[in-house]
Amino acid sequence: MTQNAQNDMVDTFQNHDSQFTKLVCCYSCAEYDIDKILPLLEKIYTESQGPELEGKAVLVKPNILLDEHPDRVATTHPVFVEAVIRFLQSRKAGKIFVGDSPGFHAPLFKPRKSGVYEVCEKTGVEWVCFGKNTMSVSLPSGKVPVASIVNEVDLFFSLPKLKTHELMGYTGAIKNSFGLIPHLHKAKQHAFHRSSQAMASFLLNLNESITPDFIFMDAVWAMEGPGPGNGERYPLHLVLGSANPLALDIIASSIIGYNPMDIETNSEGLKRKKWLTSVDEIVVKGADFEQLVRTDFKLIPRVSTWKMSLNIVLKRVPFLRNSLERKPVFYKKRCAGCKACINICPVQAIHISPKSPKKVVFARKKCISCFCCHEICQYNAIDIS
Ligand code: SF4
Ligand code: SF4
C-alpha cells in the first residue's frame, strides 16, 4: 500500500492492538503440500488479526529473482504461491494479481520455469509483469519507478523466500519489495547506493513508502551459501507470517544463525522506530523459538567492527580498498556468453572479449561489489571472493 493510502489508514492502524502488529508466527511445515500449507496460512492470519479481505483487490508479490525451476530455491515455491491465492479466495478477496520483475527479463515476461505463471492460470488470477506500467515514488534519494499496480490495489501481500544474500547477508521481507522496481532500474539503484549500508537505507525508505500489509514467508526450503541466486537448498521446514516486515526479518535472520543486528536492514530499521522500538517487543508464536535456531546454516560473512574501522581508513586509500573488497570471480570455462551479467552491471564493469564472443572481461577497478552479476548468472560461472 502506498504512503497516501497509508495516511488514510493511520487511525485504523493506531487503534489496532499493537501486540498483533509485532507478532511473528512460525510453524513447522516439512513439504510443499498445499493441504499442509493452507491451514497454516489460515492459522497465522487469524492469530495475527490480518486486515479484512472480503472484496479487497490484492497484489501478491513472490520473489522471482530468476525464472528458474523451484528446486533451485531461488524463487518462492509455486505451491506456496498457490496456497496464498487459495487462502485469499477462501476469504472472498476481490481481484487478485500476482506479479514481480526479475533483474533482467523480456518486456512481457511470464514466470513459466518457476511454475508461478501456471499457478496464476490454474487459479484464475492475473499475472502482472511489473515492467509494463510504472509510476514514480519520491524517496529521499530521488524519484524511483515502481509497478503501478501497487497503487491500484487495496492490499499488498509480500511472499519472500528466505535466502542468504551476498551483499545484504540475508533477504526476506524488507528486501522482497525491491522487486517492485522494474528490471534494470534495480541495477541503477545499486549504482546510486554502493554499499550494503546505503542499500539498506534505500530499501527501508522504499518500505516506508510502500509497506506490505501482510507477509507470508516461504522457508520450507531455504537457500544457504552464496545466495540469492547460486546457493544451496536447506530444509528449514518453516512457514512464517507477520504484518510487521522488520519483526519478521529479525526473527527469520536469527533462526538461520545471524546476529540479527549484523543485517543492516534490521539494525537501521530498528533505529528508525517505525515498525519496532526494541527487539524485546517482538512476540513469537508457534514453534519454540530456541529450538528453531540453526547453527549449521551457511551464512555470508558480515562486516565486523574491526573491518568497519579498517574500511573508514581504506576509504582514503581507494587503490588498497579496491584490492581488499570482495569481488566477483569469473569462471570462463562455465561461461555461456549469455551477456546477462553485462546487461545488469550498473557500472559497465563487464564486457565481451574482442577475441572470443563467449568470454567475458572484468574491469575490477570499475566494480562496486553489488553482486548483481553473481545473482543473475544461471550458469554458476561467477563466484564471489
Ligand atoms: S558469466 Fe554468466 S551471466 Fe555472464 S555471460 Fe557468462 S554465463 Fe552469462
Ligand atoms: S561486475 Fe558485478 S559486482 Fe561488479 S559492479 Fe558489475 S554487476 Fe556489480
How helical, in percent, are the residues? 25-40%
Question: What summary fits the major beta sheet?
Answer: 11 strands, mixed
Bound small molecules, by name, code or SMILES, are: iron/sulfur cluster
Strand content: 15-25%
**Which CATH class of the largest domain applies here?**
Alpha Beta
User: What is the end-to-end distance?
Assistant: 39 Å
What is the CATH topology of the largest domain?
A: Rossmann fold
Word description of this protein:
With 385 residues, this protein is α/β, with parallel strands linked by helices. The chain has two domains: 3-292, 3-Layer(aba) Sandwich (Rossmann fold); 305-384, 2-Layer Sandwich (Alpha-Beta Plaits), CATH 3.30.70.20. 35% of the residues lie in helices and 21% in strands. It contains 16 helices and 17 strands. The protein has helices at 3-15, 18-21, 34-48, 78-90, 116-123, 149-152, 173-176, 183-192, 196-209, 245-255, 264-272, 289-292, 305-314, 318-324, 340-344, 372-376; strands at residues 23-28, 58-62, 96-100, 126-129, 134-139, 142-147, 155-159, 161-165, 169-171, 214-224, 232-234, 238-242, 283-286, 328-330, 350-352, 360-362, 382-384. Strands 1, 2, 3, 4, 7, 8, 9, 10, 11, 12 and 13 form an eleven-stranded mixed β-sheet that branches. The protein has a two-stranded antiparallel ribbon with strand order 5-6. A hairpin with a 7-residue loop joins β10 (214-224) and β11 (232-234). α4 runs parallel beside α5 (116-123). The chain is globular and about 60 Å long. It starts with a helix and ends with a strand.
Topology:
Elements: H1 3-15, H2 18-21, E1 23-28, H3 34-48, E2 58-62, H4 78-90, E3 96-100, H5 116-123, E4 126-129, E5 134-139, E6 142-147, H6 149-152, E7 155-159, E8 161-165, E9 169-171, H7 173-176, H8 183-192, H9 196-209, E10 214-224, E11 232-234, E12 238-242, H10 245-255, H11 264-272, E13 283-286, H12 289-292, H13 305-314, H14 318-324, E14 328-330, H15 340-344, E15 350-352, E16 360-362, H16 372-376, E17 382-384
Parallel strand pairs: 1-13, 2-3, 2-7, 3-4, 7-10, 8-10
Antiparallel strand pairs: 1-12, 5-6, 8-9, 10-11, 10-12, 14-17, 15-16
Bound molecules: iron/sulfur cluster (2 copies).
One iron/sulfur cluster binds next to helix 15.
